[in-house]
Amino acid sequence: TISVTFKPTASGTRSAALSVTDNAAGSPQKVTLSGIGTTAKLSPTSLNFGTVAIGTTSAAKTATLTNVGTTSLSINGVAITGTNAGDFAQTHTCGSSLAAGASCTISVTFKPTASGTRSAALSVTDNAAGSPQKVPVSGIGTTAKLSPTSLSFGTVAIGTTSPAKTVTLTNVGTTSLSITGIAITGTNTGDFAQTHTCGTSLAAGASCSINVTFKPTASGTRTATLSISDNGGGSPQSVPLSGTGVGSCTPFGGRCGPGLPRCCPAPFPHHSFCSNPTGFGTCLMN
């Protein structure tokens, strides 16, 4: 195999040939190479929003437009174009021109109107070669909405089960949602557990609850994923789980002080402390 890269030294169409000299007829063998150099640099070169519930607006992702040329870049328009343009929106800090070496930002959001893969392009029209410059944008719409989108259990003593945190699964579609499985997956699956009120299907507009607990088996950061398999698009839907395990600790009301285990962490937003910071006392929380 022969790998070829393109690093333009000037704007406009650039061309060359890959030439292989050998003892076969027709030598040298040639492959035509071409590309367009531009002073309008967009980074990153694509934006993927992952899975988002229908009708829900994603967090914004940013593309940066940089003028890598030596003269001012004229900007005639910034727009979303393509197949599912209505599912994406943009705002930007770019004016009608961009000085040499300067940059501006374009923020893009995704609000799917249907399930399945949705795609479009962020298009920047300017006076640089290769205009319009484009960044493909994509995402997956789903009828299975999960809220919240992540769970953090904070600090929990090893072997102690945390209070449960709840994730709500809502069918935002117009037909029944088939649920084929709910499970904990990922790196530290044994440190998390779930129970739920979801059956094998969820009517349009209905919701069910998934309760998750954290019982660390080791110290340090522990992570896993709550995974829901269904027919809502983008399956499996996932909610990242995290928590931190700490060594043995003294429960509230227990004796604390020099040489004794520290007081167990208090549930957020409370804080644990020893009633006597310089000697022996009782573990309390505020």
What is the topology?
Blueprint: E1 12-20, E2 29-37, E3 40-43, E4 47-53, E5 61-67, E6 73-81, E7 88-92, E8 97-98, E9 103-110, E10 116-126, E11 133-142, E12 144-147, E13 151-157, E14 165-171, E15 177-185, E16 192-196, E17 201-202, E18 207-214, E19 220-230, E20 237-246, E21 255-256, E22 272-274, E23 281-285
Parallel strand pairs: 4-11, 13-20
Antiparallel strand pairs: 1-2, 3-5, 5-9, 6-8, 6-10, 7-9, 10-11, 12-14, 14-18, 15-17, 15-19, 16-18, 19-20, 21-23, 22-23
Please summarize what this structure is.
The chain is elongated and about 85 Å long. It has strands spanning 12-20, 29-37, 40-43, 47-53, 61-67, 73-81, 88-92, 97-98, 103-110, 116-126, 133-142, 144-147, 151-157, 165-171, 177-185, 192-196, 201-202, 207-214, 220-230, 237-246, 255-256, 272-274, 281-285.
Give a quick set of tags describing it.
mainly beta, elongated, single chain, 4 domains, five-stranded mixed sheet, Immunoglobulin-like, 286 residues
